[in-house]
Amino acid sequence: MSTLTVLNPATEEPLVELPEAGVDEADRAVAAAKAAFPGWRAVAPADRGRLLRRLATLVEENGEELALLETRNVGKPIGDSRGEVGMVADVFHFYAGAVDKHHGETIPVAGGVDFTLREPLGVLGLIVPWNFPIAISSWKLGPALACGNTVVLKPAELTPLTARRLGELTLEAGIPEGVVNILVGPGRIVGQRLVEHPDVAKIGFTGSTEVGRKVMEGAAGTIKRVTLELGGKSANIVFADADLEKAAASAPYAVFGNAGQDCCARSRILVERAAYDRFLDLLIEATKGVKVGDPEEPATEMGPLISADQREKVASYVNGQVAFQGDAPDGKGFWFPCTILAPVENSDRPARDEIFGPVAAVIPFENEADAVRLANDTPYGLSGSIWTGDGARALRVAQGVESGVISINSNTSVRVSTPFGGFKQSGFGRELGMHALEGYSEVKNVYFATD
Ligand code: NAD
């Protein structure tokens, strides 16, 4: 079997060498999940909930170890990793409580009683990216297990460590062997195999729009269900009547957080022309305050990029229009400084592509209609923000922007109990909250004649 070297992106040092799965291992993992399915779907709802609750508690008890593992593997600041691991525990707590609250309906019909059942799909392939490895694993595992499915979870090749540990914790929690199978291997081989495997009922995919398209094509062969959480190029819309200081203090973290490797990154900052110069000055001042450095230092706010390839890709977007560039450590590690490009046109390359690095494009707009037009002038539709002191305008613009998640006078996108997902080429299906359960179950209609 070939092996995979997992690196620490802050030091470029190898962390561990792992065996790399191929098609045979993928098939074995699917077979194990298939064998475990009848037993797992038959577990009483309250007991399934209890097992998920135990998993949540184990994540809390092992939180510091998981956070450090995530930081070393992803280069994510330790404060962020602690927050994300805390969310993972909350996600399992939420779905532990959701198991017996996902109801069917009764529907009035002639001559009998009609009701719906929510049934598990069977074996699911869960495919996860490298930017939020443990968090996104839990967003899929929680609802999948709550609905009674068994899974094969494939983390990204660059960041498999926390998913592997989570797999161990599911066993420790008492979730039977075979219910959760972790498969470490290349996407184009084992990911593709899961997509095409006839015994896999659904693919829950998070990753790039490009690979999402391949997943959708591959799934067509077996009419497999898919949910796709893909890329973004979200707008942070700042009107002149906003609290500019507050908007500018928050904006750097909405695009430089996770070193910009965030599908929700507000990497297009649209600013009303009347406030453009003032806002840009405030934004640059706030960006100077972002602490870039060793991810294991508690005060660090931004670490390195994930890989040398990613750094090369990000750098290709920075060749002019640089209004500000911060500092980053020299030497080993895939570092890239916070970079503000201004003024940028929405048709310019840095405003079109998902850069997935710490690069913000600041774009002027003339009025409300122009702001909505520019925000929507992108193939993506994942997230976004509106900053204004006018409540009615905030609500009009929130309705006008074509994205699955939007925040007003805030840059937050993700909560355990609220639906998350994209419009347009950012994908379809929703994760988190009760909405996620829709994507991890089938509706069966039953009619019982009474005459
Ligand atoms: P990626 O698309 O390269 O890989 C994602 C996963 O798919 C990995 O596990 C990879 O191994 C696997 N994969 C690769 N080729 C495959 C194939 N042919 N068949 C099946 N699986 C395959 O994405 P990435 O570079 O790991 O992550 C970054 C991307 O993820 C960005 O575009 C980002 O916006 C997106 N993302 C989206 C969300 C969201 O919720 N919308 C969240 C985080 C990241």
Shape: globular
Q: Residue ranges: pLDDT <50 for 5 or more in a row? A: none
- Arrangement of strands in the largest sheet: 12-13-14-11-10-15-16
**What is the helix tally?**
14
Average of per-residue pLDDT values: 98
Q: Indicate the structural class.
A: alpha/beta
The tally of beta strands, per DSSP, is 18
Give a quick account of the main beta sheet: strands, pairing sense, barrel closure.
7 strands, mixed
Distance between the termini: 63 Å
Radius of gyration: 23 Å
Bound molecules: nicotinamide-adenine-dinucleotide
Can you give a write-up of this model?
- The chain has helices spanning 23-42, 45-61, 63-74, 78-98, 133-146, 161-172, 187-196, 209-220, 244-256, 276-288, 308-315, 349-352, 368-376, 391-400; strands at 3-7, 14-19, 106-107, 112-120, 123-127, 150-154, 180-182, 202-206, 225-229, 235-238, 268-272, 322-325, 339-341, 359-365, 384-387, 407-408, 427-428, 441-449.
- It has 451 residues and is of the alpha/beta class.
- It has a seven-stranded mixed sheet, sandwiched between helices.
- β10 (235-238), α9 (244-256) and β11 form a beta-alpha-beta unit.
